[in-house]
Fold:
Amino acid sequence: MKKSNDHGKPETGHESTNGSGQKYGMVIDLDKCTGCGTCMVACAAENNVSVRADQSDKERVITWMRLYKISNGKKFPHTEVSYFPRPCMHCDHHPPCVSVCVATATKLDFNTGIVSQIYTRCIGCRYCQAACPYGARYFNWWDSFPQDKGMDRYLTPEVSPRMRGVVEKCTFCHHRLMRAKNQAYAEDRRELEEGEYITACTEACPAQAITFGDLNKPDHKVSQLIKHPYAFRLLDRLGTEPKVYYLSSRDWVRKLADNFLPGEYEPVVNRTWAEDEWSTKPGRDEF
Structure:
């Protein structure tokens, strides 16, 4: 018998969130992003992401927040570049990873809009990794941090280090949400104020290029930014309804995100820091 959610409906993990609860999302302003990589460092430190001595193994590097460098492909002096941070998109409509997971190790939370990953259920089949059109899931090939003396002062206590053989991904720093809720309950509050719960990358960004909040709250800044004419989503035409939005005043950047109408596309050249290779083919391969 299937478990029922808070709305009295069978819980399959495939449904979209609705307006009755929270729906946390993110807006990244690419015009502000300087490509410094602080978001990547903050994410790894906050979520106990293992860092290996040899990070040159491109197929096995784990970076929940990955930073890409993209270019319009034009020759100097008309060359333009932009930096493209990419966390998990936390898809709101039939997340592909949820649909293919045979172990129910990942699901869409109706109360928060966050796509979770339950590591103790994961069997390491990597179906979700193959299904994700954004390349936002990573298989852990190594054991977790060594439990040496003093490591407890480095690791975030609310985040369990992952074991070898499971898939991991961005969780919108879910432990921070739990921490904020506990504080609110202690103060006899049931609603979180704007800014009480933000991700580590949002807090660390020196350019303030990342905005995080409840998309269901009209007064939250994040809800206002997604209505901006320059707002777009990555691979929006797939219909997964990502909860990560981007802002860019440059048309070629928005086109590169596959958010263009037929006939509008002009070839651009892009490059990733992780893969260090060039391609002129549009679509999923670059991300």
In short: The chain has one domain: 24-286. The first helix runs from residue 38 to 46. Helices lie at 38-46, 96-100, 127-131, 174-186, 200-204, 221-225, 251-256. The radius of gyration is 19 Å.
